[in-house]
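[job 0412] stage=complex_fold ligand=6-O-phosphoryl inosine monophosphate status=START
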Amino acid sequence: MPSVVIIGSQWGDEGKGKIVDFLANEANMVVRFQGGNNAGHSVKIGEDLFALHHIPSGILRPGKLAVIGNGVVIDPGVLINELDSLEDRGVSVKGLRISDRAHVIMPYHRLLDGAEERMRKGAKVGTTGRGIGPSYSDKTARLGIRMGDLVDESLLLEKLEFLVPLKQRILDAYQDGTKLNKGSIAKEYLAYGQRLKEYVTDTGALVQDALEKKRRVLFEGAQGTMLDIDHGTYPFVTSSTTVSGNAASGAGVSPLHIDDVYGVVKAYTTRVGEGPFPTELFDEIGSKIAEKGGEFGTTTGRARRCGWLDLVVTNYASRLSGFTGIAMTKIDVLGGFDEIKVCTHYTVRGKKMACFPSDLRVLKECEAKYVTLPGWEEMGEEQMRRILAKGFAELPKNMRSYVKFVEKQMRIPVVVLGLGRRRNETLDLRKRKWRARPR
Ligand code: GDP
Ligand code: IMO
Ligand code: MG
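[job 0412] stage=complex_fold status=DONE, emitting structure tokens
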């Protein structure tokens, strides 16, 4: 039952989509277990660029099962558009499976997301506006509608009978101005249910069955550890649990099935939306990283804030998720700098911080302390071809030192190294592939 969980170790957009697509070649199944269409996972195959929001990146590998687990929240209209556009581009979606327990993002969730942000005035979270927070809130408050409900007309109408007036009162209180119409919402969502019903099933049983048959299962995390609802920079976080512990619960299987956890570590740090970011760069180096790395959101197109790699963050992520390997991405973007800084610890009023603070007032006072490493020249096309053919030893010497420095500081090996956007621009450094932990 070899399984690998892929987790973002920073604030999202580490390149999880690319890593999942790379490893999915050898997997039988890829499972999303949390988040919704706030995620934007880009995969570049040759010159074709795909941006996935709901559907696991494994869909791009023919013959694999791509499962949307119970822990995900789904906007069915967005999912159908994603399905259609994949099919238009010749990608088969036959392998898609959707949990009947996954919660549905309703029109009032999107409206409430916007209204709550407006009410926060100066304290905006900077959400993606996709209705993620309100949908997870309703799930927890036991006011949610699940994918399985969309094929049962009387059940859906019964739920909307009390939900629509309730949500209307809240929208009115927020002075939103929208008038909800129960009939048209029911009609729209029942049509979605009809369109998607062939994919909706008990996915937990399906994943469990695959694991028992010793099939290779990849769990595809969304967002990142610092956006986790419990462990991230609350309240500037998303509304789901993004650490590896949720892979099991969000997919509907036992945690004993998890063998490996790979933390995706971008070679520098980025963040979209509001909230503290200790290694953020406000100078031309930050702008150069943003420009070279194409740091614009896959989902909202917003510019991502950029800064040096923060090992306090990645070590905290590793502690929370138990990383057994690092998938390092975008190291190519750091080519051409004279020197590169890496944050190894924080100090507050001269004192070293022992762990990542929960109090944002303390985090704001934290001063990032850096080690400076020598840079390397940008890689030319010929050099890249040689590296991809011959491996790690062909990398520029200072790039190898950078990788080794991170491995030493995190005490975990780099198992995959991303050297460019394309699928093939990746080095596989795994010593043992798909090992099943002794049990
Ligand atoms: P995700 O949300 O974690 O899947 O990451 P995104 O797809 O939102 O953002 C990562 C961006 O970096 C995408 O545009 C990827 O195509 C790109 N990318 C991923 N890995 C690499 C890499 O190793 N090098 C370069 N240059 N780009 C990469
Ligand atoms: P992937 O999977 C980066 C951020 C938003 C905002 C906060 C809350 O592509 O890495 P939400 O809409 O979730 O309520 O917004 O979380 N955010 C992301 N940032 N990558 C993501 O996903 C994100 N998903 C949410 O920008 O700050
Ligand atoms: Mg993304």
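The pocket of guanosine-5'-diphosphate (ligand 1) is lined by residues 8, 12-18, 40-42, 44, 294, 298, 329-330, 332-333, 418-421 (CB under 6 Å).
[job 0412] exit 0
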